[in-house]
Every structure is written in structure tokens, then in C-alpha cells.
């Protein structure tokens, strides 16, 4: 996408590009490829990466060596970028940005709580997933209006809950998900058509963990710990334990993974941890093959059949639980 955009003149070569190879190394690989094509001779590239080389099950946010390494890499990259741009960024600026991020995290937590606890569920996954876009997209206009938009949405949620308005009737099964529905909104729509709510995203549900990283005095260590407190950023054992904790706090009828076939790290992690999570929670874990960015690899009909089967299995389990009561 980036190569084509520059070749077509849609975007200009940036003065500096800060590439994060933390989850996926496609960004740094693309940089290297563009340099081979002599496409980035005018700009600079700064890369922050961390090897996935710890034993399965290590709690990485509590591993001082990993926290120290990552915090040093972030600080070093920030210094390099300031050198290229001539824009000084001191710790006071980062502390202010961190405070703004924590305000965002707190609002996500409240939004997730309201949607999850309400019955009937007052909003769809396609509604609440839009509020994750700020984590994936740069906004050069600031975050304040975005935070105000979340406040408006939270107010609307409370009003819908008061009126007992729901996307589906009360008692409908609830799922958690590990993909971002706004990439493929039809997935959420099909689950709703089958009578299943997608109640929350694992990344939203993990937001409270990030608030526990504020005990550090160094802002870069806080940032490093926050990153290492997120699912998919750590080893599969650590991630599995995070997911187990979340599911015990917010039980659901099933968990959806998938659409990361383009990513060797996240897809491999999810397939590795499914059995661990299911054995420890007794909550069914489902994987949907697919690629967010190139959905032509599998037909929509293939996924429709899979979703229908998952929905049928969920309704049968719900009926059995009702009878057993």
C-alpha cells in the first residue's frame, strides 16, 4: 500500500518515518525493500523492534530486562527523530501525552463495561470498534474532539440502557473478539443476523491492566510496561494468561480469533493459545481463517458457513445450560 502510494505520487516521502516492528515486521521489511528500490533516498527511517525470544509463560511486563530494553529503544528512537526534524520533545511533552492516553483508556474501559453488562446489548461491535481507530491511525489534530465523541457515545449508551433498547433481544449470547470489526464490518453483521452479540474486543478489555503501569517514575518505562501488558504483544503463554483473566472477569459464550493470516506472529500466537485458554475457562474458542487486507483469499460464502456453524453450536450450548438449570 505504501509503496504504491509513493509510486503514484499520492503521498510524499516523509522527512522521517518511525516504524514499529513490535507485532509485525512488515513495516521495517517494507522500508528495506523501498530502499532497495531507491524510493526513500530523501527521507529517514527509524525502527523500534524487540525480539520475541523469551520462554513461553514469562510475564513480560514484570521482566525488568525486557522493560528496560524496550524503554531504552523508545527513548533512543525519540531522540533520533528529534534530530532529523529539529523538533525537541522533552519528558514533559511525553508525560502530557501519556495523561491524555490514560484518559482515553479510562473512557474505553467505561464504554466496554456498559456494553458488556447491559442486557439487551445497546450497541454493535461495528459501533464500538470505531473508537479503536485512534490507536491505529495518526491524528495531527489532537485527541480532544475524539475523547468528546466517546463521551457522547457513552451518554447515548446509558440512555439506550435506560430504555432497554438492544441490538438483539435480552438473553442473546455474547462473544468476545480478537479482530477489529471495522476492517470487515460484515462479520459482525452476520453474527448479529445469527442472534449473537459481539460484546467486547480483547484490547479494550485489557485497558485496565495498562493503568497499573503508572507506578514507574520513568515515562519511558511506563510506555514499555503498557506495551508489554497488551495481548498479542507478548509470548503466547503470557497472552493466554491475560485472556484467561479477562474471560474470568467478563465471561462470554465464545471468543473469536482470526483474519490475521497475513501476520506470522499474531496468527501463530492465536493458534497456539486457543487450547490453553479453552481448557482454563471452558469457553469455546473459534478461529476464522482470513486476511483483513486481502480478503480475496477465501470467499465470503466460506466464512458464512463457518459463522452459521459457530452460531448453531452456541445456541445448542445455551439450550443445554438452560435445561441443566
Quick structural gist:
It is built from 14 helices and 6 strands.
Key attributes of the depicted protein:
14 helices; 325 residues; globular; 6 strands; alpha/beta; four-stranded parallel beta sheet; 9% strand; two-stranded parallel sheet
Question: What does the secondary structure layout of this molecule look like, with pairings?
Answer:
Blueprint: H1 2-7, E1 16-21, H2 26-36, E2 44-49, H3 64-85, H4 91-117, H5 125-128, H6 133-136, H7 144-162, E3 174-177, H8 185-193, E4 197-201, H9 202-205, H10 207-211, H11 219-227, H12 236-249, E5 254-258, H13 264-281, E6 285-288, H14 300-324
Parallel strand pairs: 1-2, 3-4, 3-5, 5-6
Describe the structure.
The protein has 14 helices and six strands. The protein is an alpha/beta fold. The N and C termini lie far apart (53 Å). Helix 3 (64-85) packs across helix 11, helix 4 packs parallel to helix 7 (144-162) and helix 12 (236-249) crosses helix 13 (264-281). Helix 8 (185-193) links the parallel strand 3 (174-177) and strand 4 (197-201). A four-stranded parallel sheet has the order 4-3-5-6, sandwiched between helices. A two-stranded parallel sheet has the order 1-2. The protein is 54% helix and 9% strand.
